[in-house]
Amino acid sequence: MSLRIMATADVHLGMKFASYRDFQKQLSDARFEAFKRVVDAANERECNLLVVAGDLFHRVGVAQSVIERAARILDGFAGDLVAVLPGNHDFVSPDQDRLWAAFRQTTGDRTLLLESAGPVDLRPFDLDAVLLAAPCDSIHGLEHRLGWMEGYEAPEGAPVLIGLAHGSIDGITQDADGIYFPMDRKLLGSLPPDLWIIGHTHHQHDIRQARLVVPGTPEPDGFDFPHAGQAAFIQIEGKDYTVEGVETGAYRFADITVKLDNNREIADQLARAVPPGALLRLTVTGTADGRRILDLRTAVEDLRGRLPYLHHDLTGVRRLVTQDDVDAEYATGSFAHQLVSTLLNDGNTDAAALAVELFSETPSAGAGS
Length: 369
Description:
By secondary structure, this protein is an alpha/beta fold. It is 28% helix and 25% strand. The strands form three sheets. The chain has a six-stranded mixed beta sheet, covered by helices on one side. The protein is elongated and about 95 Å long.
C-alpha cells in the first residue's frame, strides 16, 4: 500500500493583523496565498490526500467571503480527497455551526469534514486508510479528545490507521495551564494509530518515537514565531513513512538584537543580521562615535525602505565620546569640558559618555566660567 499525503494545520484564514495597519491586508492575504502553495505542492507531488489538522480558519465567526475563498483553493486540489479537522479556533459545536454549515455548502464532494470524533474509513474513496479523528469542540479543553480510541480495533484488511487531532503536546508546545487539549507522547504511542498528524503547534516536528508529525503553520503570524512557514509531505509505504518539510511561507518575523562592532561597517553588520524581506523588531546596543551614530540612523532608515515592517530601539546605543567631540561641544575651561576630559584621560569612556548625556539635558553645562 502506498499513500501520499500533504499535511497542513493552523492556516488561520481570516486573521486580521490589526497591529500592522500599514501592512494588514498583505499579511491577511499571505495566509490564503500560502494555503494555495500547500495545494500546489500537493499537486506537484501527486498526493492522494490533503489533510488540514485544525484551525483552517482563525475563528468560528469568519466572514462568508473567507469561507468561499478557502473553498476555491481546496477545489484546486487534484488528488482523491481533502480531510479537514476542526481545531480549537474553528471548533465544531451545535451552538456554533454557521461556519461549518457554510463550509459544507461551498466545498465539493471530495472534501470531508471530520466534525465527529470517531473512525472514518477512506477505502470508499480508494484510499487504503482509516482516519481516527479527534476534532475540537471548544476553544479550550482541559482534556484531550482521544479517549474513544482506547480499545479501538482496526477493520479487516489492516489499512494504515492515521490519527488526526489538534492540541498541545508535552515537550514541544507551550501550554503551562494545560487548556489546549493536552496530549503526551506516551499516550500517543499507546493508542492504535500507525501515524499521528496533529495541529496546534506552529513549528514543524517529526517525532519518530511517537509516530508523530506536526505539520506546522504554512505562514508565520507573529514575532513569537521566527521560523519559515511549512507544510509536511508524508509518503506511506505499508506501515512505514517518510516526512519532507515543504516551505510555503512568504514572510518571516524577526526579533533581533545587534551589538555594534566598531571594526565593521554598520550597514554591513545590520544587513548580515536581518533576514531579507522580514518583518523586523530591531534592538541595537553598544557604543559608537558621532559619525557612526549618524551611519546607524541612515542604515536603519535604509532598512525601513526595504522591509515591509520595522520597529527599532536604539536607546541601548551609547555614544563613544572623543576629545575632539569635547573640544567642539564645550567651552574650554568649563566644568563640562574639564570633567569629560578628565574622564577620557583616565580611560573611563563609559562614564564620559554618561556625563555627555547628562550635560546634553543641561543647556548651560558647556558655558564658560
